Amino acid sequence: MTNETPKPHRFTNASRLGLTLFFIYSIFYGVFMVWSAFAPMSLGEPLFQGVNTAIVYGMMLIVSAFVLALIYTWFSRKEGKS
Amino acid sequence: MIHLPSTLAIVVFCLFVGLTLGLSFYFGRRTRSSAGYFAAHGSVPWWINGVAFAGDYLSAASFLGICGMIAFFGYDGFLYSIGYLAGWVVALFVVAEPLKRLGKYTFADALNARFRSRGLKLVVAISTLVVSLFYLIPQMVGAGVLIRPLLGLPHYAGVLLVGAVVILIVTTAGMVSTTYVQFLKGLLLVLFSTVLSVLILDRGLSTQPNPHQHQFVTIGPFPMEKRNHLAASDLPFPTAQIIPPQGGWIDKPYVRVQLPEGVRTFRIQERNPQQIMLSECQTLEIFPTGRRLVNGIPQGTGEGEGDLFPVGTVKRLPENQSQTGSLGPISFFSTIQESEILLWGEESFTTEGIRTTIYFQKPTSGKEILTPGNLPAFKGIRSESLGDKLNFLSLLLALFCGTASLPHILIRYYTVRDAASARKSTVVGIGTIGFFYILTLIMGLGAMTSGALDVTDSNMAAPLLARSFGEFMFAVISAIAFTTVLGTVSGLIVAASGTVAHDLLKDFLKWNLSDTAQVRAGKITAIGVGAMGIVLGILFQKMNVNFLVGWAFSVAASANLPALVMLLFWKRTTKQGVIASVTVGMLSSLTWILLSADTFKNVYKLPVENAIVPFSQPGIVTIPLSFLVLVVVSWLTPNHRDKIQESV
Fold first, then answer.
1. How far is B150 from B125, CA to CA, in rounded Å?
2. Distance from CA of A27 to the nearest CA of B (A)
3. Domains in chain B: ranges and CATH
4. Largest CB tally within 10 Å, which of A41, B97, B513, B547?
5. pLDDT score at A19
6. What is the ipTM of this complex?
């Protein structure tokens, strides 16, 4: 085996922001997982203009992933350019 | 059902395949070096890479599998859409940037950047190959499923055709041609899914979407005491004879009536404690010789032959309307929520080698369809069973963690110039994929109510939905579905060939390969993996497509993600820790899957009670286990950083 040559960890602002956003989204997704597993029937009740909570929550999970991704890319746009 | 091929479909299909091959040959003349072959020179524009992400990721399972699952079971199919998309958050926020910074061609490069260990390369290369192979099989099976109705060719012909075309794409220009094929496929898939969704909303919902639709009858009510004594005179068929129950029909809740045009089967259903109703079913009998009887007569389109009727209708609309006219997306969902839809259940038995399947009507409220837990595999979440709930959570966890661990997705990060381009392309990818997944709910529910579904095959839901809008839409959607397979399989083969040529031959076996020789090795591997894919695609013909994709996600998440995350965020991680974590993650998730009830039922055909593990999805156990192994082994093995401090 060859020698181990550790590189020092470099936490850029982008990765710090990324981890914060990841944490926020994980909570949002985690609540959905637990809610679906333990009280699925309550997700079937209408929430917005006759559309039920399951669909509204699911759509929000998809849309918010995109919005968070935009925020992340905007605030870290100056980092990692070659 | 028998699906007749159409000339238009064949023309559009040939056009698509010709276009993708033309692109490959065009780029092939310009790709000579290994950097070009394995990573497209790192020069792909970020927006093209973003759409190519979608082309790579949206596999046959995503398109055909999810649409079919929503069409047959409702909201549960959409749970896969949500999980598959949420995984991209892990990919972008946690993995993308460091992966781009540390690696060059393959996923193993990034994991090994700190240690430069041959053992680690070997283990990660094996896990890459295992995951890619599990992902490859369902794609090839999907190609075989599509080719039958599209071109009228047998299953193996579809698998061979995809294999041959993909080998050509990959060997001509490697990652360059693969990227552009995926870009084209991603673009077309999203574009035509949008067109299909607009057509669905414009058509609205109707209780009779197809004027030639067979009207399934319900007879009754009858008093409960008639349950076992129904006579021909009770039924509205004056010349009918009731067939006495024999073989597998004994003690089943069905009445069968012999009519001149075939056998009509009715399911006895309780209406209330005092009354029963009879609802019409469809039957399919398959003999050991391959002969098929549909509703008592030979399956076919000739004289004296018949076929299963297309299904999928709204039974009752709100305020008893017969049709709604065009709807917006919100009113489309809210109308389904308040309607009653005719879903179909099935029951099978085998007597003297004859496999009989009964498809029966299952009117279900829209509210129930749009609530999690309608899919048989998820039914348990509506009960108190903790095992079923854990199984469900485990699947959602594997979907969340799996995306960021799929080698064929991760290598796309090496095709762009820098970390900033990697981030921007992921945003384009998330936008494109997310938009497509939103459309899956409209397309799936559109198929559920289109009156065009094949009750025996949920994978055909999207193409048949398209057919309900005319032959042109059918031709285009089927050809796109086929290109979907081409795009994903190309990505998988590039990932596998990079791993063999770069990680195994050059880094592990220390073969002294020139740049040209590396490309040649990559091409030979591509042919080998492609050929293996063809053989496995034919062998696994009967396997459920989504089932195998689930395996790939679970193994990827358990084997690769813990090592990747800990390497980036825990300084104490050692190479022994990483090797142990990847090995344990891969073996434990594979073992768990092989001992699970799902595999007992679908692969070994054994009773599910004999399954050894308490639930089928491994992620919730094996992902934490892999993390734990990494931490423990890393603590027990010396860290190079400690050694430096001691010597100081």
1. 37
2. 12
3. 44-205+389-647 (1.20.1730.10), 218-387 (no CATH)
4. B97
5. 87
6. 0.88
